[in-house]
Amino acid sequence: MHVTRLRLVSWYSTSLRRLKRTSGPDSGSASNERNEDDEIENEVFVPCDDDYPVIPPPPPSIILEDPPKYLSVIQIRKFATPRGFLKDTSRVALYRLYELIVLDLVLDYRNCLEAFWRKRDWPAGEIADPADDVPVRYAFLAGCTYLLARSFNQRVKLGLDRNMPALMVPEEAEAARNVPEHLRKWEEVPQWAKDVLPLSGTYVLPTRDGELLESKQDKRADPDLAKNILLWTPHIFFT
């Protein structure tokens, strides 16, 4: 697959040359510079495997062997979906959320949650079963659906709905808050996630700074221990 390369680096290089052309001693060679600009604009970009995420991603223990190195793997990606995928899916988005939760990248996983919320045709309860054969990763993926549902239901509790526009006038917001709870569109955890067995031993997930909780009774621990994963309560609520 070939796609036209219109990237920041090209824009920066083009702008730099234009600046030199208009201010430097060689400003008379404008036609040659324009030809170089045209070549850059028409350059063909050939993606490589590193430009795509791999599904499934590694288990938590592999990611956490060297978090900065794995973060660099994420950062060099140019596409959100694996090679060969024609469109994004809620299951692929769940894998992205999983990676960010394991790395404790707060801003990134909040953005991921908000992007998921904006996908109106992605109910949390309908995320396809990844049927993962690695128990730890499967438990983490299941746990991420609990975080999704909890995050979204906090917004539903405020009277918000995934079909609502991003901006509302005060009268619309007030009407939304007055919708009876039984008529609101609450999110659910998918059945496969409920069926995933909790881990036999407690898996303690470190923070980005490497801190570990020592007890499930720690007030900083996430209250949902359905899959026996102990982590700091993530910042999953967004406005």
Automatic annotation (TrEMBL):
For region Disordered, the annotated ranges are: 19-40
Protein name listed in UniProt: DNA-binding protein
